[in-house]
Design goal:
Layout lengths: L35 E3 L4 H10 L12 E3 L55 H13 L11 H30 L10 H8 L4 H11 L12 H13 L4 H8 L3 H20 L7 H6 L3 H4 L8 H7 L11 E3 L13 E3 L15
Parallel strand pairs: 3-4
Antiparallel strand pairs: 1-2
């Protein structure tokens, strides 16, 4: 839109508005003809405006305007007292395209047809025809301003959409695959399938085991193989059932179980589970630490146990042949007979 210089006169009073387009110095303080238009609320259309005016990382506010000199007459609504833009209008007239709007190039299927009745041409006609023909090709055409930026923006949007689709696909695959990740948020399921109290307890055990699993040949991830082995021990699932759950063959399940049984036997068997004697003595209960040092007879142990106080004359007890406690109990004592390397017992026994 062209505006003559005579209208750029300073206006008295009122707030001034400025155009946000680079290389444009139009202000409402110095003219009364040019109108100023806010950025559209629609996100997609607003991005097109930003690309067209070539403003990157630009923050748009309610005071950010684009003057009417950057729109064509066809962009405005006709027959209104106040100048208004049509829906979907985009600024296209700028300093870098010499305030003109280039005509769109014809598509591949919109080429003009060659005249079919031309038989012979002189030099001037041939040159004119060649010039017209070249106008319909894009060998030396200049792309529309901002077209490359639009393509870059579209490419970024497609990349974001692709990442979202990949995340959804991974989520679906995790839900369909029977593995440990499926039960991360359920300690009850972890306790049922592995007998570990919580998921954190299981991962603490895995952090100690994982460094030794690097050389294993596997069909599943190492942690899923351990999960399969724990399910086999805890729940008692059949190998065929485990194969269906993990989408592997039954023979593969068998190899995994054998491998992990040998692996954990070797790994955990090398860990000393007995405490040193000094640690045991330091944590002995008082009842044990107060006993006399040295050996003590079975008869004395029986006397100190307190069992004799519970016995009455109408009771009977059975003891070993060498367990001589007759003088300690008030009841009858039975001693079973023994062969003593004989083939059969004596008649008295």
């Amino acid at each position: 839109m062209n505006v003559s210089a005579s209208v750029f006169q300073k206006r008295e009073g009122g707030a001034s508005e400025h155009c946000s387009v680079p290389l444009c110095s139009v202000s409402s303080r110095y003219n009364s003809v040019v109108s100023f238009h806010s950025f559209p609320e629609e996100e997609t259309l607003r991005k097109k405006w930003l690309v067209k005016i070539r403003r990157e990382n630009f923050t748009v506010t309610k005071h950010t305007k684009v003057c009417s000199t950057h729109f064509t007459e066809s962009d405005f609504v006709v027959g209104t007292s106040r100048r208004r833009l049509k829906k979907g209008s985009v600024p296209t007239v700028f300093e870098w395209n010499r305030h003109t709007q280039t005509n769109p190039r014809l598509g591949v299927w919109e080429r003009s047809e060659r005249p079919s009745n031309v038989t012979s041409l002189d030099d001037s006609s041939a040159a004119e025809l060649l010039d017209v023909s070249l106008q319909h090709h894009d060998y030396d055409a200049t792309p529309e301003p901002g077209a490359v930026d639009l393509l870059i923006m579209k490419n970024k949007e497609l990349e974001e959409e692709l990442q979202q689709l990949k995340a959804k696909l991974e989520d679906l695959s995790v839900k369909q695959r029977f593995g440990l990740q499926r039960f991360v948020g359920s300690d009850d399921d972890i306790r049922f399938y592995t007998r570990f109290a919580t998921y954190d307890h299981l991962m603490a055990f895995w952090s100690l085991t994982e460094p030794s699993t690097s050389k294993m040949l596997r069909k599943l991830t190492p942690i899923d193989e351990m999960f399969l082995f724990l399910m086999y021990l805890s729940v008692g699932l059949k190998q065929r059932d485990l194969g269906h759950r993990f989408f592997i063959h039954r023979t593969t399940v068998s190899r995994i179980i054998i491998t992990w049984a040998n692996f954990l036997y070797t790994l955990l068997g090398s860990v000393c589970i007995w405490m040193p004697p000094e640690v045991i003595k330091a944590h002995l209960p008082k009842e044990f630490s107060s006993t006399l040092p040295g050996s003590i007879s079975d008869k004395e142990i029986f006397r100190q146990s307190g069992i004799t106080s519970l016995l009455t004359p109408d009771m009977a007890i059975m003891v070993d042949k060498g367990f001589l406690v007759d003088d300690l109990v008030p009841c009858k004592i039975h001693r079973p007979a023994f062969l003593h390397k004989r083939t059969q017992m004596l008649e008295d026994d």
